[in-house]
Design goal:
By secondary structure, the protein is mostly helical. Helix content is 72%, strand content 2%. The chain contains ten helices and two strands; from the N terminus they run ααααααααβααβ. It has a two-stranded antiparallel sheet. The protein is elongated. It starts with a helix and ends in a 10-residue tail after the last strand.
Length: 265
């Protein structure tokens, strides 16, 4: 388990740096992402997208209450607190990155929007909720929890694109930060004896295959579709990859109170 967590954490950090370098610090990256913004503003924004995005604070408060409640119901309060830490650390991490990096003006002419929007705070909240819930809930609830929370995260990621609030790379940056944080939390829980193997439980092969197939379809759509649809496809594909990564990271294991059982390897 700790090897998977370490590998996923390192990979997420490297991908975060790569996405920032390619999407924000290169001319082709800025040209594509600004084309997405032009297409979104040409639609006048989406009222449905704005409705989704207006519930960010409410969803954050409800998620904290749900995580603590699940931990209490499972008689594993520290696990619930770990979920809250994942949620808060992801949101704070996204804000720190946004304040620390810059977006240079590389396009000599044409449409340019100079705001530093990398990464997306709204997407960070939604993806962090997904990661924290999947980490905290019992294994038997994981499938339903992942499907519902990933649908919410995908809706928010697409909404920030349709509303013209963020660029596609911003959503992927938030995905990377959430995966980095949940990998660190999983590593700490594993070394502390708070992850245990779930006997007799089958791995969610079909669900993992579904998320993988969705990510491939989104990648193909991003290659051949127009700017706005391509931007939405990138955001959706990022959410699908996060869900797939969670299934691999926590395969056949669940969080619990400290146990003397042999830890998952």
């Amino acid at each position: 388990m700790w090897l998977r967590a370490l590998a996923l954490g390192c990979g997420s950090a490297l991908l975060l740096a790569a996405v920032y370098a390619l999407a924000v610090r290169t001319v082709p990256g800025q040209r594509f992402e600004d084309a997405v913004l032009v297409a979104a503003e040409g639609r006048g924004g989406s009222r449905h997208a704005t409705l989704v995005l207006s519930a960010d604070v409410v969803s954050l408060v409800l998620a904290v209450a749900a995580l603590l409640g699940i931990g209490w119901a499972r008689r594993a309060p520290r696990v619930g607190v770990a979920g809250v830490v994942v949620l808060v650390a992801t949101v704070i991490g996204a804000e720190i990155v946004q304040l620390s990096v810059s977006r240079p003006r590389l396009l000599p002419h044409g449409y340019r929007r100079d705001d530093q929007s990398f990464p997306s705070g709204h997407t960070a909240i939604a993806v962090a909720i997904m990661c924290a819930l999947v980490l905290v809930v019992p294994y038997r609830w994981r499938l339903a929890t992942l499907v519902l929370s990933s649908a919410f995260a995908a809706a928010v990621a697409v909404a920030v694109i349709l509303a013209g609030w963020h660029r596609p790379g911003d959503t992927i940056g938030s995905d990377c930060i959430a995966l980095l944080v949940v990998s660190a939390a999983t590593l700490v829980l594993d070394r502390g004896g708070r992850l245990r193997r779930v006997p007799g439980r089958r791995y969610h092969y079909r669900l993992a295959a579904g998320y993988g197939f969705s990510a491939i379809c989104c990648a193909l759509a991003a290659l051949f579709a127009g700017p706005l649809l391509a931007g939405c496809a990138i955001a959706l594909g990022g959410t699908a990859l996060v869900a797939l990564a969670l299934l691999v990271l926590l395969a056949r294991s669940e969080s619990a109170e400290a146990t003397h059982r042999r830890k998952v390897s």
